[in-house]
Amino acid sequence: MTTSIPYKIYLAENEMPKHWYNIKAVMKELPDPMLHPGTLKPCTIEDLQPVFCDELIKQELNTKDLLIEIPEGIQNFYKMYRPSPLVRAYCLEKLLDTPAEIYYKFEGTNTSGSHKLNSAAAQVYYAKEQGITSLTTETGAGQWGTALAMACAYYDIPLTVFMVKVSSEQKPYRKAVIETYGGKVIPSPSETTEVGKKILAENPGTGGSLGCAISEAIELMAKTPNCRYVLGSVLDHVLLHQTIIGLESKIACEKYGIEPDIIIGCTGGGSNFGGLVGPFMGEKIQGKNNIHFIGVEPASCPSLTRGKYAYDFGDTGKSTPLMKMYTLGSGFIPSPNHAGGLRYHGMSSIVSKLYHDGYFEARSVEQTRVFEAASIFARSEGILPAPESSHALKVAMDEALKCKETGEKKTILFGLSGTGYFDMTAYMNYNSGTMTDYVPTDEDLEKGFATLPNIPE
Ligand SMILES: *Cc1c(COP(=O)(O)O)cnc(C)c1O
Questions:
Q1: Which residues sit opposite 363 in a β-bridge?
Q2: Is the pLDDT of residue 344 over 90?
Q3: At the topology level of CATH, where does 8-16+70-113+236-449 sit?
């Protein structure tokens, strides 16, 4: 009997990149800088230091280095669940009877169930290196809180998570997972912060929002010595960490001779989309490919397709730096029947700038269509997709069906950013036929736009 199988084959280490991809180093025009909310001048390292870890600030402001090395301490964490699989959806192709080839990059293979762990690990690692002694954050649907709790358990740092109140009530198991990993969960808005008390006084019955949970997390951070705040999307350094998705996809595509014609991702704050398409987009900017990129968002929270490209705050409490982005206004709260995640009012500055400069197409879809696609995928491919990811899936299916009409044999790659095990309330609503769609009217959107700050050009 031979026992000489080289174990490296199974580790597939060679397929895991050793660096992240900083698309700002190749963008023809950079996104407008983050502004200090008091002075309206571009944020400096010193402005950001009380809030974020030093290394993350460097990454946030880095516009020069295309490749940024992933420290070994983070690679060791990534090795537990990466590289993530690039899968060909043979069964879905057959079901749709399409000549197109459909591939998906699956980020749901870790316990937190989404790509968010890629940035959580990096952010907690740098906090630990800097000697930070506790972290705070917010979570909406719960994936970020879970991912961060996993990373904080591994690197041994205490964590407080402000969880949007409706989510903590609708998803008690998410909360339990965070607590199992040692995180402390506070439903937001809460009485533990001044901003929480204020929001509750103005709006006693509110189920909360991501924007208000962010304000509470920042306030706790400011009150706690040697504590930092971490954010799971939107910021440039988060997009940077997520480029491991796109780099791995490129390595797999090259290995198997796959040349995507279309790459599709869902867009909430823009991190999984930016991470998946980033390395391919960088090459498109350099004239090396002509891939068609599509970002997909909910019709009920349409920041790219119906938002304004303007400076706005990242949170409802208007305490963050100002970011130039596609936004619905920090006061925008999606309709309560919206179940599918992706409910943030704004969009990453990098993704916004690329969109503004015409590098990709954005589409919005209604949630019942999204869950219809999710059910078809679950039944044909076996994976129960996250509602967020199913936005991308829905458009991938639309594109495959177009190929059926035209007979074109396109190669479609979409990001399956996570699994939907904790979204069963939404699936139950869809299954029982009680799920409805709500598309905000122009008047609804005007209310959000009215909360935009007035920034002189
Ligand atoms: C958080 C999340 C998203 C949306 O966030 P982005 O920053 O836009 O990627 C998408 N899919 C899943 C599964 C998520 O958990």
A1: 296
A2: no
A3: Rossmann fold (3.40.50)
Tracing tokens 């991809």 back to the chain, one arrives at 21
Query: Which residues share a beta bridge with 325?
Result: 310
Decide: 146 in ligand 1 pocket, CB within 6 A.
no
Between 7 and 439, whose confidence is greater? 439
- Residue 9: predicted pLDDT: 45
Alpha carbon nearest to ligand 1 atom 9, residue? 272
Domain boundaries, the chain: 8-16+70-113+236-449
- Position 209 confidence tier, pLDDT thresholds 50, 70, 90: confident
Would you say the CB of residue 269 lies under 6 angstroms from ligand 1?
Answer: yes
Task: Tell how far the Cα of 355 is from the centroid of ligand 1, in angstroms.
Answer: 18
Nearest ligand 1 atom to alpha carbon 140: 1
Instruction: For 64, list phi and psi in degrees, rounded to 5.
Output: -105, -45
Would you say residue 8 has pLDDT above 90? Answer: no
Which residue puts its alpha carbon closest to atom 5 of ligand 1? Answer: 268
* Atom number of ligand 1 nearest to Cα 268: 8
For ligand 1, say whether the CB of 266 is within 6 Å of any of its atoms.
yes
End-to-end CA, the chain: 74
Q: Is 108 in the pocket of ligand 1 (CB under 6 A)?
A: no
Query: Given the CA of residue 113, which atom of ligand 1 is nearest to it?
Result: 13
Instruction: Compute and round to an integer the Cα radius of gyration of the chain.
Output: 21
Neighbouring CB atoms inside 10 A of 349's CB total: 24
User: Is residue 322's pLDDT more than 80?
Assistant: yes
Q: Does residue 114 have its Cβ closer than 6 Å to ligand 1?
A: yes
Q: What span, in angstroms and rounded, lies between the C-alpha atoms of 59 and 49?
A: 13
344, 388 Cβ separation under 8 angstroms? no
34 contacts: CB under 8 Å, gap ≥ 6:
42, 43, 60, 321, 322, 323, 349
Any atom of ligand 1 within 6 Å of the Cβ of 417: yes
Amino acid at residue number 265: G
Compute, in angstroms, the gap from residue 272 CA to the centroid of ligand 1. Answer: 6
- Name the pLDDT band for 361 (thresholds 50, 70, 90): very high
Query: What separation in angstroms does the CA of 156 have from each of 29, 99, 148?
Result: 40, 50, 11
Q: Which of 336, 266, 272 is nearest to 296 (CA)?
A: 266
Which is the closest atom of ligand 1 to the Cα of 232? 7
What's the average model confidence in pLDDT over 231-249?
A: 97
Determine whether the shortest distance from the Cβ of 167 to ligand 1 is under 6 A. Answer: no
Alpha-helix residue ranges (DSSP H) falling in 382-439: 387-406, 424-431
Window from 199-208, 408-417, 440-449 with minimum mean pLDDT: 199-208
Q: Is the CB of 272 under 6 A from ligand 1?
A: yes
